[in-house]
Design goal:
single chain; about 30% helix
Length: about 775
């Protein structure tokens, strides 16, 4: 469906309504504010194919695991962010005709997501006995982040006093489409009305989260409020206010609906209704126009700090802004209990849970574009769940405080129910350790190691020390029965990436022990006592594994082998696959995929991305040239890594190709799965493709460095990064690299390998040497 949405640098635009693409559009036009989110479902009734989606951050349900054969160690449940009460609903009927775009004759349909100011607008005409023009504006406020607002305006021509019925409502009788047993997860606590609205108070089964969702509504005819007492409609988990209007002449009808989701995550349960009413009173007093103006101002401030400007390529510009927009809608970093689900607030797939995506892809974005506490909160999220990571490892037979962080989680408990992932995709432990390293490297916050990081690193290293096996035949340590990042192979031996990141974790743990002992020996001794760390014995074990780990390698090709036996597979390249057989996950049996050479996402190349300083350019090139042609990129996490490595190798054309793919993955529905929701965590990889890829940004020995490349189609590009006490705007053009220091602190950076001091509040142009 490429080119379905119009190219615009600040908007996503849909012209004409095609019901076959409606679920894709619902994902792409989703709104959120970090506390709540809403798919782009229609306010009015819609009887066509749709995925209703209203989500409240941090509220989840333990949906009982459903598997055919239960295995020891399986999690009891799969935690899911719930489809919460529908707050946007407005049923409308004019002259006996129900507004339903699946049934009505619709013309001049247009939908716009305004990314610059943070709102969704929709226009359409309904043609029939009475022709109606409608305009709808909606947003989730990032100023009042528990609230949303709607302005629904339609014109009714003079058709002989047409009767109009308008029913704004709150409907909590909802369910997740992916519920394992078709179960509904909410029960009603209370419902009620006030003068111009009502509320539904719900509680989740089992977990006991409570959310009060309420509305206040105002109806205007020709700009004047109507004095009509609504007919109150109530049923299980539902309240509605029906306004029956007899229009005497051609009229414009405007509905203002203010809504809020007040959660027990943030307020005492006994005060939810009180807080709800106070919140609705406050935003209704502001009014829609004031709230919308505040929304625009708040988004302007966000864009000031993290916009990327691409000159000369509108499609590339639209793509990166869409990715940054969705990231800012999903996570604000204000609450260390929250994390980033792969679909954010745009769909149900993956349950809204936390994956290793956060550490591998999202943290770099927030390190550079947000206050330091935002990335720190993402690390603290994992630290606070260390006890449960140790419990998870204990369930699988590990001892002595070894920790295995979950592949999928809400509260630290593993809740992924596929054995090849739950038991075998253990490289996620390495991503969490790498993020501690990455955070300290970028921020210089060595105190984090002392206070929190070292405890996590030791627990992870204890896991690796028990997970490896000594091979008497090889006289080396081996890593058996794992799944690497390439999930199109399961239960393999000696996956190069897993073995590499395991030994890297051990090395970094030894380094961190030395740093913490030197910085604060008292704290170190307290920690060693707390976790019963036998330094001499355990460190010797770590060192022995580092020295004797086996890594699969092919001497003839001079490449790292993805795992033992990879070259035994029939070596077919992706370019030789018929287009009709892709995506493989939708066209092939799982058995056929597992036996094939094809790679879902970067695997060996993921390790080369993380640890590129350990390898020379030719090693990177050989492995890239071998593995990329065998990669189908059917994971959203794949194109960004390939873009960054291609740029590192100076292959600007391939880097640009992969950048477009990652930036427009959802807009153009590359993998035929956007209808399930947008790929939020990989969107941070899009930012990395520009900043680390084309911008060549790295941190080495505490110094920020840039080695930029300019794609042929671009006239210039610019981005902004915060680094320690400096805020830099970097613009890359054919003339060179311009760096503007927007802070009061001078900073020394490397550009094309040379040191340059950028004075406070100064702008420096650095020309690339021929």
């Amino acid at each position: 469906m490429k080119d379905y949405f119009k190219v615009d640098e600040w908007k996503i635009i849909e012209e004409g309504f095609d019901p076959h693409y409606n679920k894709v559009a619902e994902s792409v036009f989703s709104l959120g504010n970090g506390r709540m989110g809403q798919r782009a479902n229609f306010e009015e009734a819609y009887s066509g194919e749709t995925l209703q989606g209203n989500y409240v951050a941090g509220v989840y349900y333990p949906d009982k695991t459903r598997v055919g054969w239960w295995k020891n160690g399986y999690p009891e449940y799969f935690a899911k962010v719930l489809n919460a009460a529908n707050w946007i609903g407005i049923d409308i009927r004019v002259a006996g005709m129900e507004f339903d775009l699946a049934k009505c004759h619709v013309s001049d349909f247009r939908r716009e997501l305004n990314m610059k100011e943070g709102y969704l607008k929709r226009y359409f005409n309904i043609l029939g006995r009475t022709n109606i023009e409608a305009e709808v504006t909606r947003f989730c406020s990032i100023v009042d982040d528990e609230c949303g607002a709607i302005k629904y305006k339609f014109g009714v021509p003079d058709e002989g006093e047409p009767y109009t019925s308008i029913i704004p409502y709150i409907d909590g009788d909802v369910k997740n489409q992916d519920a394992n047993y078709d179960e509904k997860f909410w029960e009603e606590v209370d419902r009620g009305f006030w003068e111009d609205g009502g509320y539904v108070h719900l509680r989740t089964k089992k977990t006991g989260f409570e959310v009060a969702t309420g509305m206040r509504c105002f109806i205007l005819v020709n700009g004047k409020p109507i004095a009509i007492e609504p007919n109150r409609i109530e049923k299980d988990k539902y309240v509605g206010c029906e306004y029956a209007i007899q229009l005497e002449e051609a009229s414009d009808v405007t509905i203002y609906k203010f809504a809020a989701n007040i959660s027990s995550q943030n307020h005492p349960k006994e005060k939810l209704i009180e807080v709800l009413k106070e919140t609705l009173d406050r935003i209704a007093a502001k009014g829609f126009d004031t709230m919308l103006a505040e929304q625009a101002a708040a988004w302007a401030e966000k864009w000031k700090h993290n916009d990327i400007i691409i000159e000369g390529d509108a499609a590339a510009q639209q793509g990166i802004r869409f990715n940054i927009f969705q990231l800012n809608q999903t996570y604000t970093g204000e609450d260390d209990r929250l994390n980033i689900g792969p679909k954010g607030f745009t769909g149900e797939k993956y349950g809204g849970s936390t994956y290793w995506d956060t550490e591998a892809y999202c943290v770099p974005f927030y390190l550079a574009t947000a206050p330091q506490k935002v990335a720190r909160n993402l690390l603290l999220y994992r630290y606070k769940q260390l006890g449960k990571a140790i419990d998870n490892a204990t369930l699988l037979g590990f001892k002595n405080g070894a920790a295995l962080y979950p592949m999928v989680t809400m509260d630290g408990t593993e809740c992924h129910n596929e054995w090849e992932i739950t038991f075998e995709e253990i490289h996620r432990n390495g991503a969490i350790a790498f993020t501690i390293f990455n955070y300290v490297r970028y921020t210089g916050d060595e105190a984090y190691l002392t206070d929190y990081g070292l405890e996590v690193l030791i627990a992870i290293s204890r896991f690796w020390a028990q997970r490896i096996t000594w091979s008497a035949q090889r006289q080396q340590y081996v890593m058996l029965g794992v799944t690497g990042p390439n999930e199109y192979e399961n239960n393999v031996n000696n996956n190069w990436y897993t073995s590499t990141i395991a030994t890297w974790c051990l090395k970094y743990t030894l380094e961190a022990i030395g740093k913490v002992k030197k910085a604060n020996e008292t704290r170190y001794n307290e920690l060693a006592t707390k976790i019963s760390f036998e330094e001499e014995t355990e460190c010797q074990k770590f060192s022995d594994i580092i020295a004797k780990m086996y890594y699969a390698h092919d001497d003839e090709l001079q490449i790292f082998l993805q795992q033992d036996g990879y070259l035994d597979k029939e070596q077919i390249l992706v370019k030789d696959l018929p287009a009709t057989e892709r995506p493989l996950v939708q066209k092939w049996s799982w058995d056929r995929i597992l036996r094939s050479v094809f790679i879902k996402q970067a695997d060996v190349l993921q390790g080369l991305y993380f640890f590129e300083d350990d390898y020379d350019t030719e090693t990177l090139r050989r492995n890239y040239d071998f593995y990329e042609p065998r990669t189908v990129h059917e994971s959203s996490l794949s194109p960004c890594v390939h873009a960054i490595l291609a740029a590192r190798l100076g292959d600007i054309d391939r880097a640009y190709e992969f950048y477009l793919r990652t930036s427009r993955l959802d807009i153009d529905d590359y993998n035929n799965d956007t209808e399930d929701g947008c790929h939020i965590t990989s969107m941070a990889g899009t930012w990395m493709s520009v900043v680390e890829g084309f911008g060549g940004m790295r941190v080495k020995d505490g110094v920020l460095s840039f080695n930029p490349l300019l794609p042929h189609k671009w006239e210039a590009f610019s981005f902004q990064v915060g680094f320690r006490d400096a805020l830099l705007n970097v613009r890359v053009s054919k003339a060179g690299v311009s760096i503007k220091n927007k802070s009061n602190n001078s900073i020394t950076v490397k550009v094309y390998g040379n040191d340059h001091t950028i004075n406070a509040n100064a702008d420096t142009l650095i020309k690339k040497q021929a």
